[in-house]
Amino acid sequence: MTKTEMAHIWLDEKGTAWIDDTGVKVIEVVRDHIVGGLSPLEIHREFPDLSLAQIHAALAYYYDHKEELDAELAEWEQEVEALRKQARETPVHQKLKAMGLI
What we know:
Number of helices: 5
Distance between the termini: 50 Å
Strand order of the largest sheet: 1-2-3
Number of domains: 1
Radius of gyration: 18 Å
CATH superfamily: Winged helix-like DNA-binding domain superfamily/Winged helix DNA-binding domain
Helix content: 55-70%
Low-confidence stretches: none
Number of strands: 3
Strand content: 5-15%
Structural class: mainly alpha
CATH architecture: Orthogonal Bundle
CATH class: Mainly Alpha
Shape: elongated
């Protein structure tokens, strides 16, 4: 475990930022805020075990490492879109589409 200069945040051996004393990655909080549009208070409702201080620390870490984490978010969005596309291409889906049912 590598402690960062920010309170509440540590880095694992791969450089992934985590929130202290939790199993929550910083990127999870960031994703809810940036992609989901949730406020810190709304994130707190999603992650009730996180304090508002931890949530704000995660967001501060994001803004200090924006380029790196934005790239990670873009990669995640590509993976999600690939999974969606794959799900739409199942044999059942194709058959229903050919029948004009979807």
